User: Fold these one by one.
Assistant:
Number 1:
Amino acid sequence: MAIKQISVFLENSSGRLAEVTGVLSKAGINLRAISIADTADFGILRLIVDKEEAAQTVLTQAGFTTRTSSVVAVEIEDRPGSLATVMELFRASKVNIEYLYASLQAKADKAVVIFKLKDLDQGLRIIRANGLPVVESF
């Protein structure tokens, strides 16, 4: 099952990330995974939160430009080679990974990796066929 990710488009200037996290904090919204990519002029903040619709609302009300997309969260063993195994499954099945990042969720001996896949349905079939646990909510 896919989960929703919020992308927030930010000017690359001091304090913008603090503004976003402050808005979410005041609304009682908890971050479950976070990633930021930047260029010289702007950044894309990618978030998975515990209350996606509320986060979308408060961020929009605060003047941020946002977009939601579907991603897949996969739980893997926290040991060398676990991610390489998943990458090999995707490579062999020709599943294109647009980007990935890790979650803040902590479980003993486990890691959660968030995948944005070109073909979400195909990626989910590969994950399920190989018995990988999909995280359905945070």
Number 2:
Amino acid sequence: MAWKPFSSKIERSIVEAIQRAEDTCSGEIRVHLDRYCKGDPVFKAKNLFFHLEMEKTKQRNGVLIYAAIKDRKFSIIGDEGIDAKVPDDFWETTKELMLAKFAQGDIPGGLVVGIEHAGEQLSTYFPSDEDKGNELTDDISYGA
């Protein structure tokens, strides 16, 4: 059986947060969870980004929120379309909001607040586009 750290109700609340955030912008947000991350979580997220084929969005505006639950590591990365338009510290506020929830032991809450804030931030640079459709699945992906 595949590893899943959350109940189906909590998982559904995370997926619903992704859907709400994507309604406010044309960006695509995904969440990937691992138990462990032996190295740098940013490096791991960059590899996963391409493994999950997130670079295939039309505007190159995918966002990956990566978290290794047991190692207490996480990162947020955006595709080149986002990086070309936003300031260097674009994700810092989102990371701080997530970290505050994680520090309280609220991993799902940290993911949801990160997703919501990412959607708000992206809406400035990538306004909602009703014609785009859903380019990437909203489901959470899981590693080992």
Number 3:
Amino acid sequence: MAAPEPLPEVFRERFAALEEQRRAAGERDLYEGCFGCGPAHPTGLKVRCFRTDEGVLAPVLIARQYEGPPGASHGGIVAAYLDELLAGAIVRATGRVAVTGELSVRYVKPVPLETPLVGRGHLVADHGRYADAEGRLEDLAGARVFATARGRFFFM
């Protein structure tokens, strides 16, 4: 597996002190081509999670090709980013890989295209067979929230 591409300049200072969350060797093979997190997917989102004390942060820059309403991101792409972010929070908190069982998204404001955003996610509860997580997409300063999500993930 090749080294990840450097973060866009606009994110480097914010993420410089954080450790990127890596997949275990066996997981790399499973998820290399994943549309959400796979580094080998040709048109994928390539979501990268960075560890924090509370959960994970992810740099988000939604390309114009994912436009929905004029000037805003398609809701399905927003949901896909949040889905990956919540899954990353589950891995961060439990060390276990899980798949989405339920995902609920609240679209607070239109999510801008080609604008630096931060995804934030954390574990809510580990129930043993499954876990719940919450997250949001916000502007780089954390002043405006664009979308929130809650999900239930089943351990593989």
Number 4:
Amino acid sequence: MSDLRVRLLNETFSIHKLPPSRPIPPTVLGSPIFFVGRTKDELSIVCRADIPVSHAKTEENWACFMVEGPLDFNIIGVIARLSAVLAHAEVSIFSFSTFDTDYILVRQGDLLVAEKALKTAGFKL
């Protein structure tokens, strides 16, 4: 797993929670990078911190690590290994995946600890 490259994105992100029936705000849809998840209980949105999302419960100031991909679907345990390293370092995460790769968000205040833990574990940053 040490051959995986993890890149820190330059943006700061926010994580938003809205009621499940709410439409995705147009401000989010116009953003160059965002992630949306909808269940029967909630609409969750991850987007750059400078994108306004009104009437949302919001967690602010998250940094984002992207596993450089594309990753093959046969690779096992990418998120598990990253999250285990960060859990051992007592860093809380929020993760999501796309077709090509995985993303791990950490609070900005934990960024230096997270970077050190990932490097020590053999991930290339």
